[in-house]
Amino acid sequence: MGKANAIAFFYLLKEEVAKVYHEKNPSLNKSIHDWTGNEIRNFQDDLSQELNERISERWFYSHIKPVENEKLPRIDMLNILSKYAGYKNWEAFQVKNADILPKEPKNTSKTIKSGRKWFVLIGIAAVIGLILIFLNKENERTYDFCFYDQDTHQSIVDSTVEITVLNENESPLKLFSNEAGCVSINTKETFIKFVVKAPYYKTDTIERKLWDNDSAEKIELCRDDYALMILLFATSDVQDWEKRRTQLDKMISEEAVFFQITANNTGMEMYNKTEFIDKLTTPLKSLGNIEIIETIYKNDQIINLRFIQN
Predict the structure, then answer these.
(1) How confident is the model at residue 112 (pLDDT cuts 50, 70, 90)?
(2) pLDDT above 80 for 289
(3) In what order do the strands lie in the sheet with 301-309?
(4) What are phi and psi of 211, to 5 degrees?
(5) What radius of gyration do the chain's Cα atoms show?
(6) Buried-exposed string 199-231: b where 16+ CB fall within 10 A, e elsewhere
(7) Count of alpha carbons within 13 angstroms of residue 145, beta-carbon side
(8) Over the range 255-271, which residues count as b (16 or more CB within 10 Å of their CB) and which as e?
(9) What angle do CA 233, 239, 241 make, to 5 degrees?
(10) pTM, whole model, 2 decimals?
(11) N or C of the chain: less Cβ packing under 10 Å?
(12) What is the largest CA-CA distance in the chain?
């Protein structure tokens, strides 16, 4: 089998995997290429429960998130995804779906002539496409932004930084940081605006007039101290429960609402301030599995918080 056909089968497999997961989570009505970090982690959990197998979040971003893939993943990973989609293995998936992909033409003179004709047409179309791309990208440049912790001044590489580029008169463009904690943005504009989100860091909106040099700009993100404190409360062995309640009372607005998302993203529970404080000050082992998704503030107090407790 040629490389192109193998990649085509992989695209089809990604669609099948997304279909299986969507059937379990009907509220998730987006393409697998647009899944957020939280949705990816939920998929990891489901894969682990179904097959006792696990794929890393970094592997997902490298092979599943891209709309186009240059190379095929390892066969063991293809077997895992094929099993999740309901097949014995990757080979069985290809055999079952062989009729879906176009077959290679037979080696006849008629086919050869037809192929030459299409080759010429495709060549002309490719030249025209390259010209259009060149004209469109003539003034386009790539700008690099790298994200750091404001307190430690260290690169944020252990968390996925999500960037939403807000282009005027265009739909928002979502990007993710690479292994070095950086992101590249291509644009012809002289001004750029984007929203930055990362687990346990405060959401920030960045506006920049773009520059002419080639060095990456360093952007420091501020830690979400209250979210980190809640995580600490949930995971540490605290003996002074009254002191914890007092600290939480100061951190949280009287109007605050808390949403607990289920691990499989199939529902949620809502808590008021008192209920949430009671939850965090009850010594349960399950508290250690809490994960803060988003924190919203008003007058330096938490007004809204979303979290998962696996």
Answers:
(1) very low
(2) no
(3) 268-271, 252-261, 301-309, 290-298
(4) -110, 175
(5) 24
(6) bbbbbeebeeeeeeeeeeeebebeebebbeebb
(7) 25
(8) ebbbebbeebbeeeeeb
(9) 65
(10) 0.50
(11) N
(12) 87
**CB 42, CB 62: distance < 8 Å:** no
Query: Which amino acid is located at 108 in the chain?
Result: T
Q: In what order do the strands lie in the sheet with 162-165?
A: 173-176, 162-165, 191-198, 201-209
Which bin fits 72, alpha (ψ -120 to 50), beta or left (φ > 0)? beta
CA dist 4 and 26 (Å) reads 32
What separation in angstroms does the CA of 41 have from each of 10, 60, 78, 175, 268? 21, 10, 19, 17, 17
Token pair in block for residue 214: 């080639």
Report DSSP state, residue 121. H
Q: What tokens does 178 get?
A: 């690479």
Please state, in angstroms and rounded to a whole number, the distance separating the CA atoms of residues 100 and 15.
13
What is the spatial distance between Cα 48 and Cα 45, in angstroms, rounded to a whole number?
5
Distance CA 150, CA 219 (A): 9
d(CA 186, CA 91): 39
> For residue 280, what are its two tokens?
């965090």
Which domains does the chain show, CATH number per domain? 3-96 (no CATH), 141-221 (2.60.40.1120), 225-309 (no CATH)
SS3 content of the chain, % helix, strand, coil (to 5): 40, 25, 35
User: What are the backbone dihedrals phi and psi of residue 187, each rounded to the nearest 5 degrees, phi first?
Assistant: -160, 155
Name 244's Cβ contacts closer than 8 Å, sequence gap at least 6.
Answer: 233, 238, 280, 281
CB atoms within 10 A of CB 42: 24
35/66 Cα distance (integer angstroms): 11
pLDDT tens for residues 142-191? 888 999 999 999 999 877 789 999 987 778 889 999 888 899 888 888 78
